[in-house]
Design a protein that fits this description.
Layout: E1 5-9, H1 18-35, E2 40-45, H2 57-73, E3 83-87, H3 93-102, H4 107-111, H5 114-125, E4 134-137, E5 140-143, H6 145-154, H7 161-175, H8 189-206, H9 216-223, H10 258-266, H11 284-297, H12 301-308, H13 314-337, H14 341-370
Parallel strand pairs: 1-2, 2-3
Antiparallel strand pairs: 4-5
The protein binds adenosine-5'-triphosphate (ATP) and magnesium ion.
Adenosine-5'-triphosphate binds next to helix 1.
């Protein structure tokens, strides 16, 4: 394993959306196909990252496998020996290295992470349970401890230490394999910089333990400039379509019933201009539908915009987009159904077997450096 490592993962916390598909999955699959051969591609399912925010745990395991299926249905070649597909929690070195790195990470340093600030604020902005924890006993209201615990779990503790700490886990994900290139969006660049900092800090203190991933600028140069593709929510086209959206009513999930998805498109928010035109600032809803249609047809946005230029009947235009969304889902869900679960599972297990010793080798160097294991 001497090839330069490219590493990438998508958090499995819910079904994936049309936005995830065009903005995350397809580019990742293309990247893997284009770079395998010259590079080693580590594609992992960050299942430990999945519950830094509250999720339905009865769904997690299935969701993890489902993400692997989705990548396969989207064209990830499982039979390519340069491509590894693995579950983070199945390689225990991720958790073990995280703890060690934690103890060399500053509380203040983590507190500055903007993702933590944003996500924790979002969680705390959700309505809290206001009813006092009381229960009737013999006609009297007495303090109910179980209910109190429930309230606390549902409110204060919804911002977990895991959410605070997850950049350290992300650093471990990267450093265990000496990954050099990690395609990250703007929201993750701070975490990548942290990864470089903690690696350098450990190297300075203990000698060469880690290969340092490339800085953000080099990442951008390697992966090409971010296309900045953003599919917007159908109902609130000024905010991005997101898989963790509370209502999901403006979100197309890959697992949506195709007819239901078509209805979501028909109900998309538009405007009163009565003119199909690509103009994000003034017609965000229509512009978003144009963008979606261009992606589904695999043609340039300009061509789609030209095709519908001057059309005034939004209902007709929406029907075209709704039909395209429906056809896409029917087709994708067919591909998904034909994915052989046994093949996916075999790929996951093989990759986990192959990469465990690689991760353990890095972990052992660190354990030796900090005095947990005898020096060789
Ligand atoms: P969450 O709400 O959990 O943050 P998300 O839908 O924003 O979910 P991420 O896990 O943040 O998804 O991102 C997964 C991948 O999907 C990333 O590559 C991201 O750039 C891409 N992506 C997410 N939302 C969109 C979108 N609306 N349009 C295009 N790409 C998107
Ligand atoms: Mg996101």
């Amino acid at each position: 394993m001497s090839k330069t490592v490219i590493l990438t993962g998508i958090r499995a916390n819910n079904d994936l959306t049309l936005g995830n598909y065009f903005g995350g999955i397809l580019p990742t699959v293309d990247m893997a196909r284009n770079h395998a051969g010259e590079y080693q591609i580590n594609m992992f399912i960050p299942d430990l990252h999945s519950f830094t925010t509250p999720i339905d745990h009865t769904q997690l395991y299935e969701q993890t496998l489902h993400n692997a299926r989705i990548f396969t249905a989207a064209g990830l070649p499982l039979n390519n020996s340069d491509i590894y597909l693995y579950r983070q929690s199945y390689i225990s070195a991720h958790s073990e290295l995280t703890w060690i790195l934690d103890c060399f990470t500053g509380f203040g340093e983590m507190s500055r992470m903007t993702q933590f600030k944003d996500k924790s604020q979002h969680i705390l902005s959700q309505p809290r349970m206001e009813t006092p924890p009381l229960k009737p006993v013999n006609g009297e209201l007495v303090w109910d401890e179980d209910k109190q615990i429930e309230i606390e779990n549902n409110h204060i503790d919804r911002v977990s230490v895991g959410l605070f700490n997850y950049p350290v886990l992300m650093a471990a994900d990267i450093l265990l394999y000496g990954a050099k290139y990690i395609p990250v969006g703007d929201d993750q660049t701070q975490h990548l910089e942290f990864t470089r900092n903690i690696a350098e800090r450990m190297n300075n203190r203990f000698g060469e333990l880690f290969d340092i991933p490339e800085a953000v600028k080099e990442q951008h140069a390697f992966f090409g400039k971010d296309q900045g593709l953003r599919i917007m929510d159908l109902l609130t086209p000024t905010k991005k379509m997101s898989k963790s959206d509370e209502s999901g009513r403006g979100v197309i999930f890959l697992g949506d019933n195709p007819d239901e998805a078509a209805r979501k498109v028909m109900g998309a928010t538009t405007d009163d201009k009565a003119m199909v035109r690509f103009d994000r600032a003034n017609q965000p809803g229509i512009s978003n539908l144009l963008e979606i249609l261009a992606l589904l047809r695999g043609v340039k946005l300009n061509d789609i915009a030209a095709e519908f230029e001057g059309k005034t009947r939004y209902g007709d235009f929406k029907a075209v987009v709704a039909d395209a969304v429906k056809n896409f889902l029917v087709d994708f869900q067919q591909k998904l159904a034909s994915v052989d679960d046994a093949v996916v599972l075999a790929k996951l297990e093989q990759s986990e077997r192959d990469l465990t010793p690689v991760a353990n080798e890095t972990l052992l160097k660190v354990q030796q450096a900090v005095g947990l294991r005898p020096k060789a």
